[in-house]
Amino acid sequence: MRTIKRFIPLVVSIAVVVAVALVGLLESAHANARAQQIRRDDRVSEQATLAGLTNQFIQFALKDAYDFASVGPLSLQPGDPKDTALIEAYVKRSALLSYGGALVDLSGSPINAFVDGPGLPVATDPGYGPLRAALLAGKPGISTVMKTNGVPVLAMAVPVQRAGVARAIYIGYFRADRNPLETYNERLHYGKTGKAILLDATGTIIASTHRAEVGTLFGDPALRSRLESGQKGFTEYQDHGVRMVASYVPDGIGGLVSITTQTAAEFFGPIQSGGLHVALALIGLLVVAAAALFLMNHKRQMALAEAYEYKGQLLANTTHELKTPLTAIRGAAVTLGMRWRTMSAEQVDQFLGIIHRRCDGLSKLIERILLGARLEAGREVTLNAVPTDVLGSLRAITSEFKDVSPKHPVLLAAPEDVWVNADPEALDQILGLLLENAIKYSPEGGEVRVAAIDGPRSVAISVSDHGVGMNAEDREHIFEPYFRASRGNANGFGGVGLGLSIVRHLVERSGGAITVESTPGQGSTFTITLPRIVSPMEPSVSLEGADR
Ligand code: ADP
User: What pLDDT, on a 0 to 100 scale, did the predictor assign at position 407?
Assistant: First the structure.
């Protein structure tokens, strides 16, 4: 259950990142869809322009044919060579109707004709049907693709009028595979796969980027039937398993429709690859964020585990340090309680002495824990810096320690009349803690040296021992609260790991610094520097941060 709980923040964070990425992906998909729609609409409006151009070109050709037929001096006499010459001249100068021309009477019987090629479509060609129908409806006619000797041919018919009355019909022919419309379509290029196509009302191709397709039926029946509605639009279809797009717009004349086809992959390619990049970037971001979160969570878990271990160690140390004097006090009190009547006054004093010393030790330990906590929390500890005689302070503390541990010779070397600006009680505590450690971490008989060196701005006071020393890794941590070097613990030295942290705080708040030199098995030297003053008469300097 606890394991599950520990992973809740990670799961929630990853869920948030996934949600954000999903929103991003959705947005990107929407943007993609919008971009695709804009691209479709653009293609349809381009198509409308093309359809308009085709319409104008055919209108122009029809008008030209109409002018020729109605204004020109055609006799309308069957086989009249003059008419043949006129038709030939017209065919040769016409931009579109350049294959041939024929005059037929209103019932459809030939009057005269000229052809610039293999021949004209025979009178029975079904292509004449739509021509006739259009003319009867009062409109110019355009035929579907006819063929003559394999050549796809288109026809356009206009009435030949005399005094406002239709007397005959002029039919102009052009080769679907060889005319300006075809040339124009061949030159239109849309990427590698795009094709411009012109279809007639039956779905037959009358002009195309690929000339070979002219005269054939457009491939997609679904699209062909859609074109019958006469609407413009955009559609997608399959051509031999390839997804295609097509834009189509009716030309508004003769049932012709302008179309552009292209593979969907090419048409939507840039948008899709843009969308793909966005998606990939988002997925990449998601993976990186998830990995970072996982790593952060892992680090946090490790830090928590370390903190737990540290807390356990701390509790064990402190409890042990508190329990030892309590056991001694309890033992002395029990002995006294049971045997005081039979004891000599000296013996009673001895036991009372144990209780007294141990109580002192306990309250000192508790005070140290409280002071350590205050200093660590950055709380105010009042320091009254006054001119303090270094030699005097060192003498007092060293002689005290000679009594504390007679088995450790404590040597002192310090110049006279050297003064520092420091709180005497704090200095006493600093030196006391350093000496306590020097003795604690030295074997019996180990010499402890206390020395002071006068400097121009500060005084350096060192406490050296020939004890267990410590390695470089431990040296980096000894000033941290509750840190105890493994070496110290293994050797069974008591302590809660607060002494050096208190020393560092007090030294720094006195405007000084502390350093350590140590070699495992050879001993350690702790050196503190404190601000020097020339004489006790010099006004005490207010130390920045000293009272914090
Ligand atoms: P404590 O002595 O209660 O463990 P300190 O803060 O005074 O706590 O010291 C921190 C650690 O530094 C000690 O556990 C010990 O490993 C190391 N240490 C301190 N002074 C000495 C010394 N004079 N010689 C060797 N190791 C020392």
Answer: 86
Closest CA to 113 of 81, 140, 161, 141: 81
Residue 248 neighbours by CB distance under 10 Å:
22
Compute the distance between CA of residue 537 and CA of residue 532 in angstroms, rounded to an integer: 13
**From ligand 1's centre to the CA of 522, what distance in Å?**
15
Question: Which atom of ligand 1 sits closest to the CA of residue 496?
Answer: 3
C-alpha 503: how far from chain center: 48
Best mutation site among 429, 437, 480 for ligand 1 pocket (most ligand atoms within 8 Å of CB) = 437
Q: Distance, CA 459 to ligand 1 centroid (Å)?
A: 23
Give the atom of ligand 1 at the shortest distance from the alpha carbon of 497. Answer: 8
Q: Cα of 437 to ligand 1 centre, how many Å?
A: 6
Q: Does 470 sit in the ligand 1 pocket, CB within 6 Å?
A: yes
The answer to whether 543 touches 421, Cβ cutoff 8 Å, is: yes
Distances (CA, A) of 454 to 129, 411, 457, 513: 126, 18, 9, 15
What is the distance in A from the centroid of ligand 1 to the CA of 478?
A: 7
For residues 61-86, average pLDDT: 92
Q: How far apart are CA 516 and CA 496, in angstroms?
A: 20
Measured from the CA of 467, which atom of ligand 1 is nearest? 24
Per-residue pLDDT reduced to its tens digit, 92-140: 999 999 999 999 998 888 999 999 988 899 888 888 888 888 888 888 8
Residues 194-213 have a mean pLDDT of 92
- The rounded Å distance from CA 441 to ligand 1 centre is 7
Q: What is the pLDDT of residue 50?
A: 94
Fold of 2-269: Beta-Lactamase (3.30.450)
Q: What is the pLDDT of residue 486?
A: 62
How remote is the CA of residue 480 from the centroid of ligand 1, in Å? 11
List the one residue out of 255, 247, 135 whose CA is nearest residue 201.
255
| Residues 398-414: tens digit of each pLDDT | 988 887 778 889 999 99
Residue type, position 181, single letter: L
CATH superfamily of 386-545: Histidine kinase-like ATPase, C-terminal domain (3.30.565.10)
Shortest-distance atom of ligand 1 to CA 463: 23
Ligand 1 pocket member 484 (CB < 6 A): yes
Residue-level pLDDT at 3: 67
CATH 3.30.565.10 residue ranges for the chain: 386-545
**Which pTM value belongs to this model?**
0.54
475 alpha carbon to ligand 1 midpoint, in Å? Answer: 9
Range from 144-148, 343-347, 355-359, 437-441 carrying the lowest mean pLDDT: 144-148
Identity of the residue numbered 312: G
Distance CA 461, CA 430 (A): 11
Beta bridge partners of 147: 152
Question: Residue 28 corresponds to which tokens in the numbers above?
Answer: 């990107």
- Residue with CA at minimum distance from ligand 1 atom 25: 469
Task: Please tell me the residue having the least CA distance from ligand 1 atom 7.
Answer: 499
Return residue ranges of the chain for CATH 3.30.450.20.
2-269
Q: How far is the CA of 114 from the centre of ligand 1 (A)?
A: 122
What confidence tens digit (pLDDT) does each residue in 482-507 have? Answer: 888 764 444 567 788 889 999 999 99
